[in-house]
Specification:
Blueprint (H helix, E strand, L loop, with lengths): L7 E7 L4 E4 L5 E14 L5 E13 L3 H4 L7 E16 L2 E18 L8 E4 L43
Parallel strand pairs: 4-6
Antiparallel strand pairs: 1-3, 1-5, 2-3, 3-4, 5-6, 6-7
Length: about 160
C-alpha cells in the first residue's frame, strides 16, 4: 500500500498585512498571502520573473503574537500541507487550495525594516538572545600558534587511519 505525502515548503514575500481572526472557540487564526517568484525564459531567450500567489492559514496559539510581524513585503518561510477548502455560493460549489502552516519563519524585509527573523511553530519557545560582542581577551593572553598545537594538522595522523 502506497503512502501519500502532502508537504509544502515555500519562501516568499507577504502581499499584504496578515488578517487575524478568531474561531468560535476563541483560538487565533492568521491568514495571509505570499508571492513566490520564479525566473522564466521567454521565447526570445530573455528572462522574466513570474509570481505565484499562495494563500496560507496559520492555526497556532502564538499566531496572535506573530501577526504583528506579518507586514506587507516581509520575507517569510512556511512549511505545511495543502488543504482544499470547499463551500457553496449561489448554489455553485467552489473550492480553493491553501497551505495550512505548521512552521513559520520570519526572514527579512518588510515595512518595519527588521533584518532579524524568528522560527515560529506550534511548539513556539523564545530563543535566548545572544550577545554579538567579541569575546574579551585577558591581559597577557597569547593566542596559541598552529604549530604549537600537538595533534593538529596533516602530520598528526597516518594514512592507515583513513577509512577509505
Amino acid at each position: 500500500m502506497a503512502t501519500d505525502i502532502n508537504s509544502v515548503v515555500l519562501v516568499g514575500r507577504l502581499t499584504r498585512e496578515a488578517n487575524l481572526r478568531y474561531t468560535q472557540s476563541g483560538s487565533p487564526v492568521v491568514s495571509f498571502t505570499i508571492a513566490v517568484n520564479r525566473s522564466k525564459r521567454n521565447a526570445d531567450g530573455s528572462w522574466t520573473d513570474e509570481a505565484s500567489f499562495i494563500d496560507c492559514v496559520y492555526f497556532a496559539p502564538n499566531s496572535q503574537n506573530i501577526s504583528q510581524y506579518l507586514v506587507k513585503g516581509k520575507q517569510i518561510a512556511v512549511q505545511g500541507e495543502l488543504r482544499q477548502n470547499k463551500w457553496e455560493t449561489d448554489g455553485q460549489t467552489r473550492s480553493k487550495l491553501e497551505v495550512v502552516v505548521n512552521t513559520l519563519s520570519l526572514l527579512s524585509g518588510g515595512n518595519q525594516g527588521q533584518a532579524g527573523g524568528g522560527n515560529f511553530s506550534s511548539q513556539y519557545q523564545p530563543r535566548p538572545q545572544q550577545s554579538m560582542r567579541a569575546p574579551e581577551v585577558q591581559p597577557g593572553y597569547a593566542e596559541p600558534q598552529p604549530s604549537a598545537m600537538p595533534g593538529q594538522g596533516p602530520e598528526s595522523f597516518e594514512d592507515d587511519s583513513i577509512p577509505f
